[in-house]
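Supplementary material to the annual report.
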Amino acid sequence: MILISTLLCVLIGLCVVRTAHDSPSLAEYAGLSFPLGLFTQTILMIALDACSVPITPLSLLLADGVTLALLGYLLHKKGVGLQDCLPFWKNVFQQLRSVNLVWLLLMGFIVWFEYQNLERCLFFPSYDRDSLVGFDTIGYVLSQEHTYKGLSLFNTEYVLDIKQTGSYIAYAPFVQLAYGYVYLFGAETSKLIPALLFLSLLIGFYAVMTRCIGKTGAALATLFLLLTPQLLAFSSLSSTNIMHAVFASLGTIYGLLWLKSRQQGDLALSALLLGANCWTRSEGILFVVALGVPLVIDSIKRTSYKHVLVWSVIALAPFIGWTVFQWIFDLRTESILITHPFWDGEKMELIWKHLFNHFANTFYYGWTFWFVVVSFVLNGWFLIKEKDNLTPLLVLAGSIFLYGMMLYHINFVWDTIDNVLTHSTKRFIFCFVPIAWFYASTNKIIATPLRRIDELLTISKVR
Amino acid sequence: MKKNVSIIQRIGFNVAGCLVLYVLLSNFLFKQQDYAWSIDMLDDNHDFIMDNGKMNLQERYSSKLGLSYALFDSIRAKTPDSAVIYLPGKEAFFPKNQASIFTGEPFEKMWAIRFLYPRKVVTEKEYARSSYAKHIDYVIVVNGKGVERLKYSLPYPIQFGILRADSLKLTSH
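Predicted assembly:
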């Protein structure tokens, strides 16, 4: 049953990707289908629960059937039919003809390391604190009780402290629902979710980088991403951070791609992925804001507002929907946000000192942020002369700035600020790692030689 | 002729590129201490899995959670699904100034629920406030703590046990 449910997830995701984008590459299909399919499944679960329909395998399968029918109708309206699937093997063969030995070597390393990572993720069950005290337990109990809003764990008569500040009841529901989904279909552990999501991040990242710097450069960047020390370490655990990084980073990158490519599909995928990012962690809204600013500026320059309006509605809908769901069904805790303006120089200094130390720490993120600095400096001439890659730089810097300001406006009642800044902050920074590699690798000074190398190495060109 | 030379050159670039890349990766990237840590972590886990691939789920949990998991596994075996179970607090599992045989947070309610569901759990932290406290069927004794929640006196002190709350009957079910 778990195999069928996973394939169903992927099928829904494939349809979502094709509905959103007119010409996704094979790698984009492979990288985005599972995350977007799973996102859709969790939306269906909450929708069923909101209508007081028990979340069971049968009700989910029926909801999936309706969803597939709707997606099929939308694809039919776009003129997409089964005949579009036929050139699949021709496309694969054409892609394989254009590979080179360096790419093969890099892919060999990536496949081997990710195989080992997938193996350890699937072998060991969830054992990290956050999973056992929160997400995995909630998902497991959901699969037994077939409800989210009515979960016994959310009843203050049973779990007395469930509405205390910092409690898992207030977390955005994607991870808990995703775990519940696999448990419902008979999985022994929920580790399939983090395993497949990290794999999707690697493939999705490779897909977008191929569009910018060629497949050889993309493979090199993907290898660096995969081996980022703490990112790799956490990828086999069950906490929300890696899963959040999948949506936040790819959503941001697709939005930046749209500003260059103007392909509607890129903006649509950006909106969906950033919506899923808010559905995974509510603070993901800062990525919507960070990317929203250049999108709004762009729309003002072009006096065309429809695209950005639709993008923001889709990206913000899950955040708004979850907030409404929380209010209606009383799944809230006391807010930890400080909403009035204030100045605390000591707190501000502490936050930025910790953030700086984290970014510079190669044990956490390898050479990622040092490469950003090197690439920025080397690209200085093109940045000043042509404003090359200015928007990705501003979005990256802007999202980091917003994150720092968000930390400043949090009232750390559930733990000491030092503890949170030392342990939790380093995990949120995972979201910035793929964006950092995207920015640094697509700077002209880096991208041009990489594309040239890719051309020189290609033995047989695809026409 | 020009096209053939070009292809030969490309093949040459490929071979040279592979050699250069392999040398650079294996001497720099893979040897850099932080990336080496990543690779060693993967290798160590891979070796462990190759040696212990036949472990069942309980054994895999135990390999990560140690005696904390074994305790809950034992509680599951000795209590019915409808049981209401008392769990002592943090100081029972991790006494001050003493090394503990436990790992993780077995004293945390949600942690315990993960392994004991559908049984109900009442922790020491909420004992005074919980309406479930009146219905406790089983008491978990850890490092001697928890006996105070029994409705009877024990004829001898115990350090660890899964006891019925109301009488000293055998706990098999």
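Chain B is about 45% helix and 10% strand.
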